[in-house]
Design brief:
Distance between the termini of chain B: 77 Å
Strand content of chain B: under 5%
Strand content of chain A: 15-25%
Radius of gyration of chain B: 26 Å
Oligomer: heterodimer
Structural class of chain B: mainly alpha
Chain lengths: 293, 315
């Protein structure tokens, strides 16, 4: 089921919020039918997650058609106008370059880039975030961007766990435990759930899970006894964390940040804060930035 | 022309360009001398690597020692652009597969300090992967751990070597890393801590080495290999403690034990870990007391756990 600000939400209300495409509807249906409670602070927050998920699937398709290539970390490459290629194969955003432009360049000049599957997943998430967040916010949040597997993802607040339901836009992992040691880049494949029974994996393209398993099985060592398999955890960005940056207003120097018991963050103006101060102090751990009264 | 100078000394003191020039020049005058120098026992793999194109151009392979020929075959196989899926390594690459293990060892042993270039490092890293995944000899772990720390010290990627190292699925692979906690080099200690980050409490410990040794000895029977990898997560945890087994071991002679086990499974990961550690300590202290304790309800066990934790915290 889905709750909005603590109350159960019905399908009609959600659809009226602008949910239209079949993929968006699929996500809503899975959430509504689930025994798990998907809790959102507002309808906007729910719509944000649904659209972000759809955006992840379209960014996956766009990456495939951009012409980027698969490469292990020894052979990674990038456009030197936007990125420094570091000795470990990571791409470091060049000083003064807006992060949004650097991410978009990967899609515009795909053949200039080559990277591993985990880096591809981070790029897809950033590309989806470019579409979902105001550009100035995106560039502020990811000003010091470094692309290298899952290692430098703090600003995306990546969540990695076994979820109650699998949803389109989830990133899954097919493990290849008996990979050929001469090609360890095929030790597993990160795949994006496209919501139509197929998945995207960088280097393997669009396939069903069975197709991914078959492709990885071809890359096992001689004498291998174990087949590749789909792991249970799913990976996704912190949708509720990123949602707060989706508004196109700049956070003033004296904005108040509020953290609830679950460390969910929200912000409000000092005026709003003063108006409801006693109530807010009861329910939130409060952090104030900038000028203090 | 003077031939007595070792190729090894030329490479190390005068550089690889001078080495190539020297060998090409010597081939024109005294091919036998070149072959003799190439087949010296003391030659290291980096020298063979640097001279591999010269050896190929002048068709010297057939005159090389078995060790050098096998090393060049391995190198060629690793650097092959297209790899037929599941090529039957090691039998497909040379006539003497029984020597491949020792040659791989030689390549990694003599080659781990050198950086040369990306292609060279790829050969060494893959050779290390072959040692740990195909041959799995315990003695090779120290060799590969040295390579891992050399890569880190040089500021180069440790990604595939880390994968290769933990792909040995040998729990003893943690020991050479633990030993680095005693290193005088702060960066080595920091890297060892990073690799061992999955050991609960290590970061807060005043003496990480002693903590590691105690943790290792206590948890050795309960460690399980974890299928996670850097492709899946930013924080690699190659092994996890099986808290369930550590908690109950073979204890199952009471009808209520199934209920207790179900209760244990519903605890948080932190509670599971604390209860498993307490169970282990009581078991080590007195088996009869442990059996008596295990027969208590889970709630009573948790209460004792909290008391012990409270005493520990208030020290």
């Amino acid at each position: 089921m889905i709750t909005i600000a603590g109350s159960s939400a019905n399908k009609e209300v959600i659809l009226n919020a602008g949910i239209q495409t079949p993929l968006e509807l699929t996500i809503v249906d899975v959430m509504l039918m689930s025994p798990h409670t998907y809790a959102y602070r507002s309808l906007d927050a729910l719509v944000f997650e649904i659209r972000f998920r759809v955006s992840i699937t379209s960014s996956s398709r766009d990456l495939y058609y951009s012409g980027v290539q698969f490469a292990d970390f020894y052979r990674s490459r990038c456009n030197p106008m936007f990125w420094h290629l570091l000795p470990d194969g990571a791409f470091q955003l060049k000083a003064g370059v807006p992060a949004s432009e650097a991410i978009l360049d990967i899609y515009r000049n795909g053949p200039m880039y080559a990277f591993e599957c985990a880096t591809a997943m981070i790029i897809i998430l950033y590309h989806a975030a470019v579409k979902m967040l105001p550009v100035n916010r995106f560039n502020q949040l990811f000003a010091n961007m470094r692309l290298w597997g899952w290692k430098y993802d703090q600003d995306l607040q990546i969540v990695h766990n076994i979820p109650p339901d699998y949803l389109p836009g989830d990133i899954r992992y097919v493990k290849n435990p008996d990979v050929n040691p001469l090609t360890p880049e095929w030790q597993g494949e990160n795949i994006v759930d496209l919501g139509d029974g197929t998945f995207f994996g960088h280097g393997l393209g669009f396939r069903t899970v069975g197709g991914m398993i078959e492709a990885l099985a071809m890359r096992r060592r001689p004498g291998a006894t174990r087949m590749p398999y789909l792991m249970l955890p799913a990976t996704r960005p912190g949708f509720s964390y990123l949602y707060q940056y989706s508004f196109n207003r700049t956070m003033s120097d004296n904005s108040i940040l509020l953290f609830d018991n679950g460390l969910e963050r929200s912000s409000l103006s000092p005026e709003e804060y003063e108006e409801n101060r006693s109530e807010l102090l009861k329910n939130f751990i409060t952090v104030r930035f900038g000028n203090t009264y | 022309m003077k031939h007595s100078v070792s190729l090894e000394i030329i490479r190390k003191s005068e550089g690889i360009k001078r080495l190539e020039h020297y060998v090409k020049n010597l081939i024109d005058h005294d091919k036998k001398a070149v072959i003799s120098l190439l087949n010296e026992d003391t030659l290291s793999y980096p020298t063979i690597y640097v001279l591999s194109s010269t050896i190929r151009e002048h068709n010297l392979s057939k005159h090389l020692s078995d060790r050098n020929r096998i090393a060049l075959s391995i190198q060629k196989d690793i650097l092959a652009k297209e790899r037929a899926p599941a090529a039957p390594f090691p039998y497909s690459i040379c006539d003497l597969p029984q020597y491949i293990h020792s040659v791989l060892r030689w390549m990694v042993e003599t080659g781990s300090e050198e950086k040369l270039n990306t292609r060279y490092r790829l050969v060494i890293d893959r050779a290390a992967g072959l040692l740990t995944t195909i041959y799995q000899h315990p003695d090779d772990l120290l060799l590969v751990s040295k390579l891992l720390f050399n890569r880190k010290r040089a500021g180069l990627s440790t990604h595939y070597v880390t994968w290769a190292y933990f792909s040995s699925h040998n729990i003893a692979s943690l020991l050479p890393i633990g030993e680095k906690l005693l290193s005088a080099d702060e960066e080595e200690v920091a890297f060892a801590r990073e690799l061992l980050h999955f050991i609960s409490g290590l970061d807060e410990s005043d003496d990480p080495y002693v903590y590691f040794r105690n943790w290792y000895e206590e948890n050795l029977p309960y460690l399980l290999h974890n299928e996670n990898s850097y492709e899946l997560t930013a924080e690699l945890a190659p092994y996890v403690v099986d808290h369930d087994t550590k908690y109950r071991e073979c204890f199952s002679h009471k009808a209520s034990s199934n209920l207790r086990e179900d209760g244990f499974q519903s605890l948080s990961e932190q509670e599971k870990e604390q209860l498993a550690n307490l169970s282990y300590k009581i078991r080590m202290s007195s088996r009869s007391e442990w059996i008596e304790w295990m027969n208590r309800p889970l709630s009573a066990q948790l209460m004792l756990m909290e008391e012990v934790q409270h005493d520990y915290d208030s020290r």
